[in-house]
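Many introductory courses stop at the sequence. We go one step further.
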Amino acid sequence: MKLFWAVLSCIFCTGHISFAEPRLTYNSYGMPGLVDMPSAQSAPDAELSFSISQAGKSLRNTLMFQISPRLTGAFRYSSIERPGSTLYDRSFDLRYRLLDETDRRPAIAVGLQDFIGTGVYSGEYIAASKKLGPVVATAGIGWGRLASHNSFDNPLGLISSQFDSRSTGFTGTGGRIEAARWFRGPAAIFAGVAWPITDRVTLKAEYSADAYTQEVSDGHFVYRSPVNLALDYQIKPTIQLTAYAQHGDEIGILASLTSNPKHSPNGATRDPAPMPVLPRAKALVVPAGWSKIPSLRSALITALTPALHQDGIQLIGLSLTDTVAIATVENHRYQSQPQAIGHVARLLSNVLPASVDTIAVVPMVKGIAGSQVILPRDALEAHETTATGAADMRAATIVTDAAATDHRAAATDGVYPQFSWSFGPDASASLFDPDNPVALSLGAKLAAEWVPARGIYVTGTVRQNIVDNYKSTPRYSDSIITHVRSDSTFYERANGPVLQDLTANYRFRPGTDLYGQFSVGYLERMYGGLSAEVLWKPVNSKFGLGFEVSAVRQRSFDGLGFAPLTVTTAGLGAPRSYDTITGHFSGYYAFDNGLHAQVDLGRYLAKDWGMSLHLNREFLNGWKVGAYATLTDISFDDFGEGSFDKGIFMEIPTSWSIGRPSRVKRSIVIQPLLRDGGAKLNLADRLYDLVRDTHEPQLDAQWGRFWR
């Protein structure tokens, strides 16, 4: 505490102070706020923040995402030392800004803290924040943990007596949404100010409504005062360090790292300059029937193939008449399909005879052709350099289904077979094991893909672990239902090279608006078998329906067969086998604001029946941030700790971080607990994800990059 006051004295004794504009700061829970208390402020839209705060015996790690301009969400993983043990707690927060700040009115937000978890940090609040010159003042009313100091009767009791009392603890195995106690029980007032002393330093002071009751009873904390102080230092626009003093007894430190999927750390992607459109020479006479001459078609393919390849695009087929050219291509470089289509169209304009009035591009993704993008050649020549060129080009463009395109007749020679491979470092993590909360593994991965013919893909991945911090003895699952996922730690710690997957896939078009896929082999690290999928998705619709069914058997821990071992408290036991049939009906919908929803209904790996809901926000550069939850007919008590399956997922495009075009993405899934209820197969390359980038809603969203 003396150190904190010494630093503060140095700042105020440096002479003249130039007060800066108010800016957003984070509290010890990793949310926009003061010291411990929340504010009504929101981070910039789509901001991601990772915060670590340490005070006394408590460590909090928080991942926050500004889901929309008004809605903020967070996942928190905390360790709290208690007499004789350490509690590892997982919790989720939500906050919604009801009103924006105006000249006369403060911003007002309502929030739920730890609304899914064990209830250690559970509380609700309504906060108001207002800029008063350089100072941001906040006041609010809290419930639950945020009403443990100087509380009073709940004013909501005037509405109903049910608001007067609040249950304590958590229900059953925890992890449930305890809505029955939201905004119930005693309430308390909190308030505070954030005062920017310089462009980098902000002083914060608050009157806290949190008495740290549990921490005091554990003997790790002495509560002396409701006043908390903090000194925030902005090292960079994306890095914040905070030192804070809690309740007159404890000193803490907070570090926050922020990023925004909308803005690349390297600025705009450095795309290669596209070839400009070559206007036709109108006076040039082209003989009728030229498209029937095989040598002319071969000459066009010979000219196009290397030029497209240099642009990261592969020519799969070329169909010609005297007036129409249809190029089937696969884009291996650009996140945006309209950008790849624009490059193809410009290249075609440079080599096609003047009689061709219409250029059509069929973007194919891993053997699936989703749409045909029809571009009038006159429009290409007229709109390339105009101020509204992208919008004008889109108005002239027609997008249709590509199911009827004769790809066999248009196929170019030498496209198949194809073989590609990659080798490089690989990192994996296993999180939230109480014995080893962050287990990391560094290794090397070899991935290969063989495409003997259109639509047939054989893929495989081998990984060799090099170094890790895994414990020698893994934690044994306490699940009372079939161990379909909870023994995953034994798979992660296998010795020697591990064949992670080896799958043969056949993808095809059964008809208009329909897509199909068959898969066989080691479908993922833990399961192998057969899988079939069909998708109905009109090219101009935001809605799609799919059905997938799989017959699978559990793989061995070493990845070399289908005879998994039974895990007992004594170690590895006798071989056993587990097989099941799992499948789901799925509905997909793409909203206008980048929000995507997916609902799955069906049978899961543990032979339980239920429903999963996925919601994610996707950005035009390929970033995706979302969450999911699954409820099945397995009871909360039988499911075990956490009550039901839930998690957070992200997809991060490589192009965003390196500043160069690339279609490679890194997927991250954060599951608070890996249990057996509601477990699904981890199937790669599902049809909806393959085809939707080539359909009209997604093309429209990214069309601004057509001329890039």
